[in-house]
Write a structure and sequence with these properties.
Oligomer: single chain
Shape: globular
Largest sheet: 4 strands, antiparallel
Strand content: 15-25%
Low-confidence stretches: 1-11
Helix content: 25-40%
Mean pLDDT: 91
Strand order of the largest sheet: 2-1-3-8
Number of strands: 8
Length: 193
């Protein structure tokens, strides 16, 4: 297995840029609730950090009263980080099929989390997965599921539990990860309000 290198380490994303992206997520959802369309990046108060224009995978998680209320994202992308924050924030708020859409009343009570992902690296053995450092992508028979690194950590799952839950999320048999599944790992720079 080749050594994974992060495109950006957590130290390289300034607190100011993290705050900027989190505010952009909040502003994007609020704007959509009022106008029923996506806000344009030029209408957000953005800092000059060139990182926000990188093309990396991004997930936006929304929690209401510390409970998951939506999580949408892309593992890889041809869109910039800021464009994805706008789109994924709105989609996490209103299009996550696991939850009812949040309401305008909810918007003041939700908290946003953003995960910026490194490029996934396919691995040959599950022994190469480092829980909770790695997020995991599992694919088999045209089905696929993803867990961000924080999922296993927040649920206190070990490696086997993580892979079993990932199979279930993908609609596979719980032990399908043991036979001919394709697995890739990535790291995430995660920050929240």
């Amino acid at each position: 297995m080749s050594v994974m290198r992060q495109s950006h380490s957590p130290e390289m994303i300034s607190k100011q840029t993290q705050k900027c992206l989190l505010q952009a997520a909040r502003d994007s959802v609020n704007y959509y609730m009022l106008n029923h369309q996506l806000i344009q990046p030029k209408n957000l108060l953005l800092n000059t950090d060139p990182l926000i224009h990188n093309k990396q995978g991004v997930f936006v998680t929304i929690k209401l009263n510390n409970k998951l209320r939506g999580c949408i994202g892309s593992v890889t992308s041809t869109s910039t980080i800021i464009d994805q924050v706008i789109t994924h924030s709105v989609n996490a708020a209103i299009k996550d099929p696991r939850f009812d859409p949040i309401t305008q009343i909810d918007t003041g009570n939700v908290a946003y989390e953003i995960s910026i992902l490194t490029k996934p690296t396919e691995i040959q053995s599950s022994d190469q997965i480092d829980i909770p450092k790695h997020g995991v992508i599992l694919a088999k028979n045209g089905k696929r599921a993803v867990f961000l690194p924080k999922v296993a950590a927040e649920n206190n799952w070990d490696l086997q539990t993580t892979l079993t839950r990932l199979c279930k999320k993908a609609g596979l048999k719980s032990d399908d990860w043991k036979r001919h599944a394709r697995v890739a790992v990535f790291e995430a720079i995660e920050f929240k309000e």
